[in-house]
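Assemble and predict.
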Amino acid sequence: MKSPFSRRSAIVTTVIAAALVLSGCGNSVNDSAGEASGDCGSYAIAMHAWVGFTASSQVVTELGEELGCTITQTTLEEGPVTYDAMEAGTIDLIIVDWGGGRWQEWSDRGAVVEAGENGNVGLIGMYVAPWMVEKYPDITDSKNLNKYATLFKTADSGGKGAWFEGPTGYTTIGEKMVSANKLNFKVIFSGSEAALVDGFIKAEENKTPFIGYAWQPWILHAKIPNLESGRVNFPAPDWTDPAQASGLTDYPATPLIKLMSKKLNDANDPFTSLIKNFKWTNADQNGVAADIDGGMSAKEAAQKWIAANTATVNSWLGK
Amino acid sequence: MKVRKSYLLLASVTVWIVLGRLLNGTHTLQIATYENTAFTSYVGEKALDLRGNRTESTAFIYFFNPIRGVIDGFVQGIRNLISVPAPNSVIPIIGWLGVVGIVAFVVYATSQWRTALLCVSLLLACGALGMWQFTMDSIAMTLAAVLLSLAIGIPLGIWAGLSDRVLKIFTPFLDLAQILPTLVYMAPIALVFMIGAASATIATMIYSIPIAIRITSHAIRNLNQSPVEAAESMGSTPKQTLTKVKIPMAKQMIVLGINQTVMAAVSFVVIAALIGAPGLGKPVVEALIIRNVGQGFVAGLAVVFLAILLDRSTSAAAKRQSTFVPPTPKQIKTKRIILIVGGILAVVSVFMSRTMLWAAVWPKEVTIAPQVARITNNAIAWILDNLYIFTVGFKDFISYSVLNPLETQLAASPWYVTVAMIVALALIIGGTRVAILGFVLSIAIVLSGLWYEAMLTLTQTIVGCLLTMIVGLALGIWTGRNDRAERVLRPFLDAGQTLPAFVYLVPMLGLFGPTRFTAIATGIVYAIPVVVKIVSEGIRAVPHALVEAATAAGSTTRQIITKVQLPAARKTILLATNQGLIYVLAVVVIGGFVGAGGLGYLVIVGNSKPELQGKGLIAGVAILLLGVIFDRIMQAGARRSA
């Protein structure tokens, strides 16, 4: 079934399938649904709590379905919850994982298989709202942060500057950065990406001070184009051992990884090779994510990107 | 006695404030979020072992994994029936038209045509909102959880109804299960049963079984005794009395219990999505992720419709039992003919939904979702643009005037001062036993290493409860004294109780930003309906004679409220405060998602960072301990004031 599933064939299949069920032939519960669709199996892919992830997942979902695979999307939490699900066989793919090796324990047990880099490079940092850089040009040097600490004071920061730390599950060393650099800031755990997006956008609109955790690739860069100018530079980005990170240092650049379940890895079908070949840039992810955030459905946004990047897509499909 | 008690309270609070100020900032037991105590890292290691053992240990192979398999299969079976394509098929066994036909028929058969019409309209509305499959998934999840809950809950409830000893053993567990915030037990359940439909079903059951047990045992206990005695005097065996007299007599009440069990299960529909349950929770959580209030509202609306549908169809069945006017032969005949015709129509619709695509899969063209989402987004955008200044002003006012001082008092005081204060309060309000319990549980929190975070959560809960009581008392008195107000507010209260807190967490975030107050405001919205309902009932329960006497004596309305109705309803109001506190606590912890910090944040972070998993699990226990301490103090206070 190379061609997209047309409406007519859907109707015909439905009628036949229904007729089969009605005539009592539909008893073989154990037959997997995937068998009917040729040489590609049925897979469940994880959907994590951020738009860029949706963008990446949707693109492989669309391509997988074109290959004739049955793809279901399951929304669930990042990290151990998903690795567990992969071990249990209910999830087959994490298209982009920031976990920085947290999967090691599962990978050692053979439950999770690394499928290479996905092309995105994760770059984390502390950012001030870009309007502040124009007004206080030296603010992006971490040594000057204390000079401006009072600007960032809120009702929740206990007399210090409010430092909005990243979402749960993300690698965060804010507490260490604050104490090691002797910053007069209080770390506030934003808890979710939505909270950070909200904070940056409000700050930029109302010209209120804001310092928060941000990263690349991220949807917010499409909404606040000069966000990158707000990156605060901390001394020497050397972070070889996360556990020993002194806090004087900034976050390292992390190549992001694709993770597969053992089942998907062993299947060696068209979807397996699609996943192994999948690789795109931060700009690609940001673009699709921006479309989704702008109100396009994930499906439309993914199809739009696929149509505009046939060469890349063909290279993934081995065409 | 009363005067002395309030003096004692005042004195201990004064001592507490003075000590807190003097020793401010010492022995606060604050540790950084990424730090583990010896205890939390031990628990974390154990959790790690548990996960590693899942394929090897006997407990998993012969106990947990089979349970998971059976429940998963059960849920999947129901989903294949109405929601997802059945094996070897591209459509579910029964398509949307068939479901509508069956619902219409069953509801008509068990109640009346008006309810049937309402239920069908609600179902079609869910479809028109573009949520057909999600709604069916939620129905499947609810159905599975309710059936299993009843299968366990009703027998246990009958047992507890017959034996005082059993009830006494059950009661603490039932109390506990109802205090327990849902966020807390999802992580341990997912640890054992992994994410997915099974874990979500079990988590739902923990919430709904206690209700089934309670109502069933209540039904058995509060029967009219004369038929029971008559049966016994005529020589019935206990078994005969139970099956032929007690259970049939308690039937109506038990059906009410089914209704309540269903509602409890429905309220779990959204949060269950956090552990991978299929259903309406998925679009709600996704809307939170991309901050699309409109989309969240569309999904939330479908949740409310589903809740009303299940409530009306099950409560109508319960009410029907109570009509004792026998229908005329003609009515019986008409009803029978309609039933037969309806039955045929239902069968035809099922058949059509299996043979025609348009009747099997909800047609995508029939949708009002984009319009609803757009209108909501515009409305919210307008509110945010125009009211942001006021909301931020109000937030800052509450933060500086109440939240910050209380937080300093609770969290920045040395732990032993605050523990002593909690014990003193428990002693004055609830007596020695409650004081001992409060002491033991507080020390347990201290030993867990999460005292500081617990105090942050407690601060938010107290402030939330305070604001809830101000609004809840006002509305409760109003609706308690005025039938019209009650009728007008009722639908909003019902909707507020069924609308999952997650749905309005997003707009709250827009109004107040990532702060503690966002969590508090969400908790308030969640807790107000229950407080209003309890207070209103309390005011209504005040004997008319009392109010009339006061009116005759020339009291003003204000005097009647403050001097007669409020004092007479005192116990109920204390209970309402207790419920308010528990409800606010349950939601404040979700505030960890929007910058409120505290124990809730630790629970959430523990789910996603293996190195903090132990800390997250312990934070869940600490939330529970906090809940128990204050529940016990308030309950004892309410008992004593009676």
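Chain B has 27 helices and no strands.
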